[in-house]
Amino acid sequence: MNLAEKAKHFPDKPGVYLFRGARGEVLYVGKAVSLRSRVRSYFTGAQDGKTQALVGRAADVEFIVTGSEVEALILESNLIKEHRPRYNVLLKDDKSYPYLKVTVQEEYPRVFITRTQPRDGARYFGPYPSAGAVHKTLRLLKKLFPLRTCRQVRFANGRPCLNFHIGRCLGPCRGTVDPEEYGALVREVLLFLEGRHADLVRDLTRKMEAAAGNLEFERAAELRDQLRAIEQVLAKQNIVSARREDQDVVALARDGNRGRAIVLEIREGKLLGQHSLALGGVADRTDAEVLVAFLKQYYREAGFIPPEVLLPTPLGAEQDLITEWLGLRRGARVRLHVPRRGHRRELVRMAEKNAALAREQMRFERSADAALAELAALLGLEEPPVRLEAFDISNIQGAQTVGAMVVFEQGRPARDEYRRFRVRGSTAADDYAAMREVVGRRFSRGREENELIASGRMSSREGRFHRLPDLVLIDGGKGQLNAALEAIRDAGFDGIPVFGLAKEEEQVFAPGRPDPLPVPRDSQALYLLQHLRDEAHRFAVDYHRRARSREGLRSLLEEIDGIGPARRRALQQAFPSLDVLKAATVEELAAVPSMNRKAARAVYDYFHGPD
Question: Would residue 181 count as lying in a domain?
Fold first, then answer.
């Protein structure tokens, strides 16, 4: 039975349908009020190019009946998240976007970054558009709220860590922190993350006044300082609405088959920030269709849904359904609105201006795609490389030799993937041997992690080296290139393209060829290789400088009486640079593991002189 004939026997009920390819892979997930009518429409009448391609590749189609169209929408979102079908409009997330997780299910909750959302009772906030954005928010939370950061499950009552002594943690490990008091702090964190800043300020003000009324002046001063810090943060936020509304404002940027959704987060009338999230598969789709697909995926994961979402265009037949679904997710009414005038229209224009900038960025990325295609042609690769890795070695007269690996994906730096290596043993003064060691360690780790993943003993999310490059670039000439190639082959990999880029002449060398490759000096491909090589050099030099600084700190600590190897290691871990160590008080020094007040006084006096 062919697929058109099979669709005639589908039920006239709401549900979800899945097109599958010849290998059983899910090509497309859709929902319908009537499964029979919707799926039959794929095989009748004129179809756009994407639908023709889908039907041409489909080997089977199946369905799942649901109780209502809203249930179908929820199931569709879950299946798209699980299968990442090729022909759906998708939020682009090779590793998924990062979130902040608040472990409210624990007696003493903590906040940390995650890329997964198991159903464990925790609260999740995000998605954040980049690791940098979520790390910045987490640093701010640690500054404003003294939550624990340790991973202890069962607290061993005893000496608290440094965070307690510097006021960054209430110290539940001491066994003297009231869970109610700690829970109140967690509620303040949730108010902050939800953007309910007025409620947070009001709550802290009430506590401060109560503490002062009870003559708890030290506690009142702590609350006052916390209030001032929060108000300083809030003062930096732009007021965009005098009505103190909670809103999300959405706009689209499109360029060919790629797109970006811009989301402005407005809480209590203040612009908290902007999310710019990549979309794929938007060609041959209307703006309404792209918006519907985005809203379903974005708000399926969002930790907070505002009562109003402003849109640049109506959603058509899907608007009432999306509105109902968002209301169920929020637990209260949600309004989807396309403003035509007034301050709401100005907010949409603001989002559209940011979308226009995102469109220019996508065009720049398109030029990066052209550079990758040119690179493939010049280097004789079968297809444009997606993941490029570059390696560099840095030292001064053989001392403190370090290696660096940087990664470009789709022609852009992927800084989360950068890795550092400290070169070991007698090879430190030999650039070739150092390159062989660093590259060998990277690919040996890659082989080990892939074996663990294949055996089920490690997940791909835990791995740091399992993703292999489509191209390797070595900073150097034939000697460094041959050393790297030997290391890669010794690790069990053969067939990964490896090239060298020499600095003086900017020449590209390939294995087994005595002469450099004919790469034009003005080509985009060479510019891309130079950018990759220079980034590896910068990263290596920066690591080397920090290693020298730590070595200098270790040498200074060796001069202080009473500071042995264990205390030196503890101090270096707690205070990573000389400037940070100099700024530490006696109390902060004494709080470091293995230190005591006498040793702390010796370190302090070494830098500042005796009192």
Answer: yes
